[in-house]
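Homework help board

Subject: predicted structure for assignment chain

Our instructor gave us this sequence and asked us to write out the predicted structure in C-alpha cell form, then describe one feature. I got the C-alpha cells but I'm not sure how to describe them. Can anyone check?
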Amino acid sequence: MKCERCQINLARVRIDHANNGQAASSFLCSFCLRELISQGNTADAFPLNDTHNASSPVHEKEQMPKIEPPKAPSSTPTLDHYGRDLTLEAAKGKLDPTVQRDHILRRLITVLGDGRKIIRS
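My C-alpha cell output:
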C-alpha cells in the first residue's frame, strides 16, 4: 500500500483519527510522518494526543461509566458466600473439561503410577 500523502513510498505507519465524528485511518510513509511532525501539523491533521478527549464523539461511549443494575437480595446468602455457581462458571468456560470423565482420569493415574514402580531383581 502506498503512502496516502506522497503516493510514492510504501506506507509503514497507520494513524487512527476522528474525521467529522467518525473513526478513520490514514496510512503514511515514515518520511511524510516525520515531515508532518516537524511542521507541527500533526495536531491539526491528525489528533494524535486528543484520543481521550471527552468532547470527541468517537470516544464518548468509551468514557461513559457503566451502570450496573442493583443486585436483588439472594434467598440463599450462605450458599452464595461459601459455594460457587457451577452453571455460571460453565457458561464462562472456567470449568475443567474433564468433569464427568472419572474413568479417563482413573486410567491416566494408573498408567502414570505404573511408570514409577521400581523393579527390584
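Reply (TA_rk): Your C-alpha cells look well-formed. For the description, you could write something like this. Residues 17 and 24 are 5 Å apart (CA to CA). That's the kind of observation they're looking for.
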